[in-house]
């Protein structure tokens, strides 16, 4: 194994910690994005606690890597990672979405560690591509990572960015696709089917890596292999389970953005502990 057992275990634990933080952010009786947060949690844990070069004490550090949450509706997941990393207090997380509070329902500029306002689906990859082009023009080694939802791929702008990044051979750009098979209202295959996902990205000139998005060793290997690819942007197609780790929410569109009962809240935290 290329990575130590300790590293894998600690990152797996971080994934579970982020899921628990998300459930605490959501709380009881108020709708929140359980499904898409839990599906992306292991990917985000690997990025924030292993891959990304970041300085929590200096969020605008010139040497940093850039992470954009294009599926911005799961802002609670990014806030949890930023808080656990030390960008702001973990105790602030449950106040997320309070009127006037700095942690809002979608990421916005001005929050420490947030690189772009996202949540209007489809825009994050274009924003990331612009940053990647800027970094190349400045001859900087920083990398740009963008987390894209598979439902989000219904947006045409994703494919404009994909085409441009492929044509420009933006090897400093990595898209990670949370391929959980569900969007807000049902299975993607039953609505606007985006399969075959990997072939589409390949056709646009990307280096495509398919992984189990809950297997930490595969996640780390894919992120390292993306960095080694010198002539193409990389798309990591991560097969995940929406609601992963919360049994009653797994693979159910109904838990895309749902209020939890007290019983569900307690059960979710118990299962994730
Ligand atoms: C432009 C735009 N249209 C619609 C929405 C409402 N919306 C929020 S999440 C979502 C579904 C996204 O599905 P997916 O990208 O697969 O997210 P995941 O299942 O991973 O949470 C929709 C339609 C939005 N945020 N932006």
Question: Any chance you could write out the topology, listing elements then pairs?
Answer:
Blueprint: H1 5-26, H2 34-51, E1 66-69, H3 75-85, H4 124-137, E2 144-149, H5 156-167, E3 173-179, H6 197-203, E4 207-212, H7 216-228, E5 234-239, H8 262-272
Helix pairs in contact: 1-2, 1-3, 1-8, 2-3, 2-7, 4-5
The chain binds thiamine diphosphate.
The site of thiamine diphosphate has 20 residues, from helix 2.
Keywords:
Rossmann fold; 5-stranded parallel beta sheet; 273 residues; binds thiamine diphosphate; alpha/beta
In short:
The protein is α/β, with parallel strands linked by helices and 273 residues long. It is built from 8 helices and 5 strands; from the N terminus they run H-H-E-H-H-E-H-E-H-E-H-E-H. Strands 1-2-3-5-4 form a 5-stranded parallel β-sheet, sandwiched between helices.
Written account of the structure:
- The model has no long low-confidence stretch (mean pLDDT 97).
- With 273 residues, this protein is an alpha/beta fold.
- It is globular, with a radius of gyration of 17 Å.
- Strand 4, helix 7 and strand 5 (234-239) form a beta-alpha-beta unit.
- It has a single domain (5-272), classed as Rossmann fold, CATH 3.40.50.
- Helix 1 packs across helix 2 and helix 1 (5-26) packs across helix 3.
- It has a 5-stranded parallel beta sheet with strand order 1-2-3-5-4, sandwiched between helices.
- The protein starts with a helix and ends with a helix.
- The longest helix has 22 residues, at 5-26.
- The chain has helices at 5-26, 34-51, 75-85, 124-137, 156-167, 197-203, 216-228, 262-272; strands at residues 66-69, 144-149, 173-179, 207-212, 234-239.
- 40% of the residues lie in helices and 11% in strands.
- The structure holds thiamine diphosphate (TPP).
- Thiamine diphosphate (TPP) binds next to helix 2.
């Amino acid at each position: 194994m290329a990575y130590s057992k300790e590293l894998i275990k600690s990152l797996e634990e971080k994934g579970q910690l982020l899921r628990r933080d998300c459930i605490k952010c959501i709380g009881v009786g108020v709708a929140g994005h359980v499904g898409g947060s839990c599906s992306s949690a292991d990917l985000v844990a690997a990025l924030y606690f292993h891959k990304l070069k970041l300085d929590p004490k200096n969020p605008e550090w010139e040497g940093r890597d850039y992470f954009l949450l294009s599926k911005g509706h799961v802002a609670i997941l990014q806030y949890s990672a930023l808080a656990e990393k030390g960008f702001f207090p973990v105790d602030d997380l449950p106040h997320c979405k309070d009127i006037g509070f700095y942690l809002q329902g979608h990421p916005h500029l001005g929050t420490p560690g947030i690189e772009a306002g996202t949540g209007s689906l489809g825009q994050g990859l274009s924003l990331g591509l612009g940053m990647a082009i800027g970094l190349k023009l400045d001859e900087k080694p920083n990398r740009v990572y963008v987390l894209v939802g598979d439902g989000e791929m219904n947006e045409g702008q994703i494919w404009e960015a994909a085409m441009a990044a492929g044509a420009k051979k933006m090897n400093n750009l990595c898209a990670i696709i949370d391929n959980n098979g569900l969007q807000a209202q049902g299975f993607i295959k039953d609505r606007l089917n985006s399969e075959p996902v990997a072939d589409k990205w390949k056709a646009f000139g990307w280096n495509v890596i398919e992984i189990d998005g809950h297997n930490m060793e595969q996640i780390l290997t894919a992120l390292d292999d993306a960095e080694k690819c010198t002539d193409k942007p990389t798309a990591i197609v991560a097969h995940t389970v929406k609601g992963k780790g919360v049994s009653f929410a797994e693979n159910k569109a109904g838990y895309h953005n749902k209020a939890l009962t007290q019983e569900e809240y307690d059960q979710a935290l118990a299962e994730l502990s």
